[in-house]
Amino acid sequence: MESVKLVEVTRGETVESLHRGVIVVIDSHGKKIASAGDSTYYTFIRSAAKPIQALPVLEKGAAEHFGFSVEEIALIMSSHSGEQGHVHIGLQLMEKIGLEAKYLQCGTHPPLHKATAKELATRGQAPSVFHCTCSGKHAGMLALAKYLKLSLDDYFQLKHQVQQMMLNTIAELADLNIASIEVGTDGCGVPVFAMPVERMAYIYARWANPSDLSVERIKACNILQEAITTYPEVVAGTGRLASDLMKVTDKKLLAKDGNEGIFCIGLPSKGWGIAIKIEDGNTRAVGPVVIETLRQLGILTEDEYKKLSSYSRIELKNYRGELIGEARPVFKLNFKEEEKQKWILQKYSARS
């Protein structure tokens, strides 16, 4: 699985470090638009799977039954920063579901939002389960389990029907045999799915343009599109690339990050999906790669590019605040001919 050089990190005029990775752009019909590196690079989709994991919560009727608002649906597919607003929405979700916080099995950690974490520490207050970046996703899973009258204590385990529904939904959107999807355990304890990067892009292309899906799934995809673009600050948080990207581009795209250098984008107007994997998992490289990919694809206007400039090249400063280098994109997308991408399922089934 070949990766390519995507970002170089300089100190003065010298390149000190490199970040390699893979980029794939595919449309909802399976045509590869552009790429850099090996499109079949196999890895975990991590939290970029959250919008797809949210689909069964809507399709099965749980979101409607509990009266979830669009903003609350945004939290279900979030990797939020644990800011006050995020915690408030999480509390609302659990109140609507009728469950106490103890049912959430995502674990706890300090808020990703540094100011909020500092405020908690200053008050001598430990973070709650609602500060966990995955608490919204877990609330959605609990809502589905309760609505379907399934057990609540083990909702996060792979054997549970809720997790099987989500695995099946991922496989269907990726057009993959379930046996070809390796399953690991995410940081919050739920199953996480591995697949070729091209399939991640395909998932986002089909979410962006769900026209060939069932009526129920089209409706759910559209609601998730509305939620993520109307409340981008809920899906990530202050100073986060996914939120700022959607704010600046004003509903032009769907963006979701994942740990270990994963970033996925859907483009509804084109029916395209973009998937990016930074090979060494370093998030420092994500911003420059995302912005440069969108620039080369002609997605960003000049004004949008300027507003996102702090992500396109990352300034590196020393302890004195002096500029000493930068992390900058150095790749060129390889644009493909308009021919249907051939999905060879047998190629991946050997991993089962």
Sum this structure up briefly:
By secondary structure, the chain is of the alpha+beta class. The chain contains 16 helices and twelve strands. The strands form two sheets. Strands 1, 2, 3, 7, 8, 9, 10, 11 and 12 form a nine-stranded antiparallel sheet that branches. Strands 4-6-5 form a three-stranded antiparallel sheet.
CATH-scheme architecture = 3-Layer(aba) Sandwich
Q: Main beta sheet, described?
A: 9 strands, antiparallel
The oligomeric status of these chains comes to: single chain
For the secondary structure, the number of strands is 12
Rg is 20 Å
Q: Return the string of H and E elements.
A: EEEEHHHHHHHHEEHHHHEEEHHHEEEH
Principal-axes shape call? globular
Description:
It is a single chain. This protein is of the alpha+beta class and 352 residues long. It has one domain: Beta-lactamase. The chain is built from 16 helices and 12 strands. Strands 1, 2, 3, 7, 8, 9, 10, 11 and 12 form a 9-stranded antiparallel β-sheet that branches. Strands 4-6-5 form a 3-stranded antiparallel β-sheet. A hairpin with a 2-residue loop joins β1 and β2. α5 runs parallel beside α7. The C terminus is likely disordered.
Question: Layout of helices and strands, plus pairs?
Answer:
Layout: E1 4-11, E2 14-27, E3 32-36, E4 42-44, H1 50-53, H2 55-59, H3 62-65, H4 70-76, H5 84-97, H6 114-123, H7 135-147, H8 161-174, E5 182-185, E6 191-196, H9 197-208, H10 215-230, H11 232-235, H12 241-249, E7 254-258, E8 262-267, E9 272-278, H13 286-296, H14 302-307, H15 309-312, E10 314-317, E11 323-329, E12 334-335, H16 345-349
Antiparallel strand pairs: 1-2, 1-11, 2-3, 2-9, 3-12, 4-6, 5-6, 7-8, 8-9, 10-11
Helix pairs in contact: 4-7, 4-10, 5-7
